[in-house]
Amino acid sequence: MLAIIPREQLIGGLALDIPDIFAFAAFYILAMVNKKNTASHMRYMIATSLLMLGPGTGRAFIIYGGMPFPQGVLYSMILTEIITVALIIFDSIKGNSVKPYLVTLGVLLMLHVIWQFQLSWWWQAFGTWFAAWFF
User: Fold this and answer.
1) pTM tops 0.85, yes or no
2) 8-18 confidence digits (pLDDT tens)
3) CB-based contacts of 53: which residues, under 8 Å, 6+ apart?
4) Nearest-angstrom CA–CA distance, 43 and 31
């Protein structure tokens, strides 16, 4: 791919995959740690499904909405964050613990920041190290 796409963009593209893998693992581990607390377990499993929402909606925005790739990804991230905020509000109104969804929102915002700074020196350094180590 280096013949067609600049190296920085290729490394930056890892900003979609690598953090999502770690986020999914974190939510799944939190769900398993909370398996005896049904409410928290359920909310962390919902968090894993929220991560699956992004790729599908992003593709829909890109293919059916005619958006450029970066804009489609950005809008899918914002949609996922809005859904998480709605779940926080819903649980708050119902008097349920909002901690799992606050953790989820924090992780989603972290993913968003990484995506926004995919061409930064720190992400380029990490992506270069990751690519050299695993590929």
Assistant:
1) yes
2) 888 888 877 88
3) 76, 79, 80, 83
4) 8
